[in-house]
Every structure is written in structure tokens, then in C-alpha cells.
Amino acid sequence: MQLKALLVDDEPLARELLRSMLQGHADVTIVGECANGDEAIDALQDSSINLLFLDVQMPEIDGFDVVEEVGVENLPSTIFVTAFQEHAVRAFDVQAIDYLTKPIVPERLGRALRRVREKLESQTTQLTQEQLNSLIHSVRAQNEAPKTYAVRFLVRDGEREILLPVSDIDWVEADAYYSRLHVNGKHYMLRESITDLNNKLDPTTFVRVHRSSIVNVERIREVYREGRSDSSLVLKSGSVLKMSRQGRQRLIDLGR
Questions:
Q1: Which of 19, 51, 73, 254 is such that its CA lies 20 to 30 A from the CA of 110?
Q2: Contact at 8 Å (CB) between 34 and 41?
Q3: CATH class of 3-142
């Protein structure tokens, strides 16, 4: 079987190294490369891709965010690429999920490809939601300090800087490597990716409803269902935000 691979890594040199290593495997064809999570989500609409090399640590939208946004049921065979240290990669082993640690070595790549070929032949390649949830919980728990949440951010307001209480934020919008904080009709820029900021906000109050937005649930006025997967939120301010299927599920889980 010919393996049609998509490479996802925000580091050009890392993609180049992996590309050169894969040239030694005649049954692997690289059909695309992505430099960020957004590009990966779009590229994975191509159903001909049957192998994904996915970097875990990327700014704004990391590898786990890509998996959650696309949905595990829609993923091709996936090999995670990570710079995590030994104590964290044990979670990949426990869940029997294929992974490569940086710097990638040819022998380890060969083993990972053999496992993918074997799984494709036995039709047991699909990552399950239970595996993903367990993996994310284990890896993030082992790589984060005991959890405390931000209560204010230092932001620029014209010529001055102010301490903005987190409770004043209506919603957060991704803006490349920055986040745009929307507060009562005004907005402030914060030099934080939306993924990093999401990890600093209390999940009982703030929910990531889309890959590009986080909302303060206290500001939600209405929720609209627009088909099987599309939804939208209307905030008390009148702002209308798109909500992904995964975002809707997070909001449902919070309400339970």
C-alpha cells in the first residue's frame, strides 16, 4: 500500500529533516506540508491522506488542538512528533500511540512506519477518543505546574498600560501569535497565543468554542444550532461567534 503523508511542523528545518528521511522509504509519498495547526486542519479535508506526521508543540493551535478540531474519527494513521522528555512520552507508550521524539533518528522512524503498515493491514489504525483524552490529560498534567489561573493581564491602553481583570473579558480572538481581548466594546492586544492563553484561563468560566475564539460563558446570551455541526453564539454585547462541533461539546460538558 502506498502511504500518502502529510507533514505538520512549525519548524521548517524539522520538516526538511523528516522529508529527507522519508525519501528512503519507497512506499511513502509526501503529498503536503503544513507550518501550523490552521493549515493542517484545512489540509486534512483531503481524504486521500492516509498518514499524518503531527508535531505536538506548535504556537496558537498545537497538535492536540488539531486532533480535537478535526475529530479522531476523521484522522488518518497518525504519528505524533514531540520534543517532550521521557517522563511525558510514557503516556504515548501506555496508549499504544505511535510517536517520534526530536531529534528524529532514522531507525526510530523506520519502526514507526512498520507499525503503521501493520496496523493498516489489520485495519486497526484509528485513534479512539478515549485514547486521545487519556493522552492529552497525561501529557499536559506531567508538563504543567499545579494549576492556578490568571486573574488579570497587563495590557497596553493607548500610551499607558493597565491591569485588566480577567473577569472583564467578554471573549478572546486569535490574531497570529497574539490574542485580542474584547472588553465592553474595546479590545486589547496580548502577546500570547490563544492556546497558551486558554491554558491560563479558568475552564469553569472560559470555554474555547472555536479554534480562533474563547468565550466568557457569563457573557453568552443565546446559542444557535445551524445544522449537524455548525453552531453560533450571540453574546450580551451583540457579538456573534462561530462555534465548532468540539466547542459545542465543551460547552455542553461545562453545563453538566
A1: 73
A2: no
A3: alpha beta
Category of 139 on φ-ψ map: left (φ > 0), alpha (ψ -120 to 50) or beta: alpha
Sole residue written with cell 475564539: 213
pLDDT(209) > 90: yes
* Band of pLDDT at residue 160, cut at 50, 70 and 90: very high
* Closest of 168, 152, 164 to residue 200, by C-alpha: 152
Backbone angles phi, psi at 176, to 5 degrees: 55, -120
C-alpha closest to that of 61 among 70, 72, 53 = 70
Domain limits of the chain? 3-142, 152-255
| Dihedral, CA of residue 141, residue 147, residue 151 and residue 156, to nearest 10 | -40
What backbone torsions phi and psi does residue 3 show, to the nearest 5 degrees? -95, 120
Fold of 152-255: OB fold (Dihydrolipoamide Acetyltransferase, E2P) (2.40.50)
Q: What are the residues facing 121 on neighbouring strands?
A: none
Q: Point out the least confidently predicted range of 103-107, 147-151, 215-219.
A: 147-151
Is the dihedral angle over the CA atoms 190, 193, 194, 198 positive or is it negative? negative
CA nearest neighbour of 19 among 39, 4, 33, 36 = 33
Q: Of 146, 167, 17, 137, whose CA–CA distance to 81 is shortest?
A: 17
- pLDDT computed for residue 134 by the predictor: 80
Q: Record the cell numbers describing residue 133, joined without a space.
A: 483524552
- Copy the grid coordinates of residue 152: 488579570
